[in-house]
Structure formats: structure tokens, C-alpha cells
Amino acid sequence: EPEVTQTPSHQVTQMGQEVILRCVPISNHLYFYWYRQILGQKVEFLVSFYNNEISEKSEIFDDQFSVERPDGSNFTLKIRSTKLEDSAMYFCASSGGTSATTGELFFGEGSRLTVL
Amino acid sequence: SQQGEEDPQALSIQEGENATMNCSYKTSINNLQWYRQNSGRGLVHLILIRSNEREKHSGRLRVTLDTSKKSSSLLITASRAADTASYFCATDATGFQKLVFGTGTRLLVSP
Questions:
Q1: Radius of gyration of chain B from its Cα atoms, rounded to whole angstroms
Q2: How would you label A13-42 residue by residue, b for 16+ Cβ within 10 Å and e otherwise?
Q3: Which residues of chain A neighbour B102 with C-beta distances below 8 Å?
Q4: Which of A44, A46, B7, B46 is spaced 20 to 30 Å from A109 by Cα?
Q5: Interface test with B, best of A59, A105, A109, A114 (most B CBs within 10 A)
């Protein structure tokens, strides 16, 4: 069964360092998302991406964040200068094809980011 | 309370019993979805109910939606130990899948 894959599963970084989280969405999907979940808190929307541009972004998604689809398969989230409060589980999701009409998002297993 | 609040926060039942989780929200919605998350894992979509629907079934799952009360419930019938997980409701105000998740209900099903 097709799935969304994310790498790395866990990354530890020093405050101020740049981090890139990678995602491979399901191949025929057209809509891509990043969500994050700080430990013990709600899952929060960060950004949606369609047709090679950001469709919508939340207040969390400030200038330190960027997304890119560098090729036909990868979808990346970059944090330019990490802060302690960026420590969270970051989930990539995709939808499209029939799921675009059903509203179902397919989530990856997440990338845990720890900022020291 | 914030958009998407589930209750109870935690629920412990025996296998074979039914589990009911509730979700309340504050703003108008296009649809409401329920997701499941095993500890430390990704989110798995369970069911979506649109604002013009009142009830939906999928296998052992039954979801209701009351837009006048801005609430939804998820019923899992004949629960199994494998149903142990956290369950989240998520509202979609526009239909463009910018989901607002609730706080979740942790369900423990004991054999």
C-alpha cells in the first residue's frame, strides 16, 4: 500500500543550526502538508503546498521556515535557525487523486526534532 | 475551550466493550475527521463526516455530527486490545484540509 515516508526519523541539532526534514509523498498526490506536534500538545498545521507554491500557512510558519519540492518526488521542510521551541515531531502529509475529494490526509510516521 | 476538544482525555475499557469519545468545536466547519495515533507513530485517517451529514459508519466505527451543538462523537464497537491508541478529531473549516486537531482521547483496551 502506498505510504508517505519521512527522513530522518530523529534528528538532534544545536540551537541556531539549519535543519532539513525530508518527505516522499504518495506518488500520485498533488497536495502536500507539514504539521507538527510538540510533546504532549495538539497536532498543529504549519503549511500546505500545491502546484509548486504555498497554498496556506499558519502563524507558526514564519520566515525561519521554508518548504520546497526540489524534484518530482521529495517535499522538504527547512528550518533556517532552530530554536529550542522548534523541538517537536514534524509530520508530512499528502492528499490527492480520490483522497482530494474524500478529504483524507495520508500522514508519514514523523520526524522527531530535538533542539539542544 | 479551544477548537477541537475531546472528552474524555483518557478512557480505559475491557475488550468487547464499546468506547465513545466526544469532540466539541467552536467555529463552523466544512467537515470533521477522526484520526488515530499509536504511541510515537503517525496519524491514521479513520473517517470523515461532512457538515451536511449526521451519521456515518465504517466497520466498527460510528461517527455522529451535530452542527447545532458543534459536537461529534466517535463510537468504537466491540473494542479490541489493538484499538489501544490516541484518537483525535480534526475540523476542516474550508474543505482545503487545513485541519485543526483536538487534544485527543487516550484509549486503553485491556484484554
A1: 13
A2: beeeeebebbbbbbeebebbbbbbbeeeeb
A3: 42
A4: B7
A5: A105
Q: Which residue has the cell 499528502?
A: A94
Render pLDDT for A61-116 as a digit per residue (tens, 0 to 9): 999 999 999 887 899 999 999 999 999 999 999 998 655 556 789 999 999 999 99
Instruction: Give φ, ψ of B76 to 5 degrees.
Output: -110, 120
Residue numbers of A between 12 and 41 with CB closer than 8 Å to B:
31, 33, 35
**Omega prior to A8 cis, within 30 of 0:** yes
Verify whether the Cβ–Cβ distance B96 to A48 is below 8 Å.
Answer: yes
Question: With b meaning 16 or more CB within 10 Å and e meaning fewer, what string describes B89-110?
Answer: bbbbbeeebbbbbbbbbbbebe
